Model the fold of this input.
Amino acid sequence: MHAQNKWTLAECIEYAVEHNIEVKQSRNQVLSLKVQKNSMRNSFLPDLNAGASQNFTYGRSLNQNNTYENSNIKNSSFSVSTELPIFAGFKRTASLSQNKFDLLAAEANRELIENNLSLNVTGAYFQILLNKEIYRIALEQIQLTKEQEERTLLLIENGKAAESQLYDVRAQLADDELTATEAKNSLRLAFLDLAQLMELKGYDNFDIDSLGGNVAVSDTLSPLHIYQDALTCMPQIQQAFYSLQSKAKGVKIAKSGYYPTISFAAGINTGYYNDGSRLSETFRRQFSNNMQKSLCFTISIPLFDRFSTRNQVRAARIEEDNARLALENEKKQLYKDIEQAYTDAVSAYEKYKSTTKAVVANQEAHRYALEKYAAGKSTVFEYNEIKMKLADTLSKQSQAKYTYLLKKRILTFYSCLSLTNEEDIKFP
Done:
């Protein structure tokens, strides 16, 4: 499907999420908690058990007349019983509520894993775009040096330059080719990083599409506004919040040990006895006559459990407090991440503006230097110095551009929008 077509950012993220093992494990965790939830709901139902046994006794044994004799005895028994827990100190209801919050936390954790993977894929995607740009600049420098080589040959033929300058140009060409080779290797490694994040196999023809995005800034958004939006949708906040609610239910579960438990049980038992004598009644008659029915209410009141329940409650409260601290820490970390991304974006934008001016200036300087060199009024070193400055400013401009576009998308993501959203984020 993608052998000839270029992958978009949305396709890369979708493929990575679909094939990532950690994402699959988090989904299985959600399914496991759903099964656990079903088991907890079923715990409110009574159970039902049936049993049967058959005993054969040979030799001297006690008969129905309470005397010992040598005989072969057959003894059968049958039973049906049920038990219904009526009250368990609110433990089952609290456990069901805890499972609900554990399930919500697991779903938030799955979303968090997917988000982190998406951010990593996006970063690798933009790194490829940057490396492509740097490689393109390196190839342009090779082309400029080859054109310089041709001009140098003309200058030498016309007696306006020494032959030694040709060797200097060819040395510069070798350096430019080395730079291009290094840029190509960096690009190849960037493709490898993205393919590995996507769990993509057979990526020989793998390529990505370019992204749009204007490097422009308006005055409507601040880190605080982004943070307020992020609090409502970021899964790390939701996970920490649901974990806190789960730990609160854990305190109630621990407190259930202070309450008595009440249960109800009922059963039916019967049996059949045969010692081989003619006096033994038939199976059908014994089955009916030996029928025994029972009803049982049981109450268990905890009086002293070696302070076990008290310590469990204390431990549960400590876990609840740790969960509360974890929630606050997640909020602080989220704001730090947003503030860092915002600062990086603003810095990259300012750097892009500065490098853009530098590129314009260096392009003009390069044009003037090229004219001087073609007229034989400057040396190779003077021209190469200006050409290298131009290449350096072009690389810095590209770095600033893609850093800005990446951070812009990250901030858009923190504003509860997709990483593949094309809407421009706006900064004050």
User: Anything to note?
Assistant: The two ends are 43 Å apart (CA to CA). The chain has two domains: 9-43+89-259+308-414, 50-87+260-301. The mean pLDDT is 89. The first strand starts at residue 47 and ends at 57.
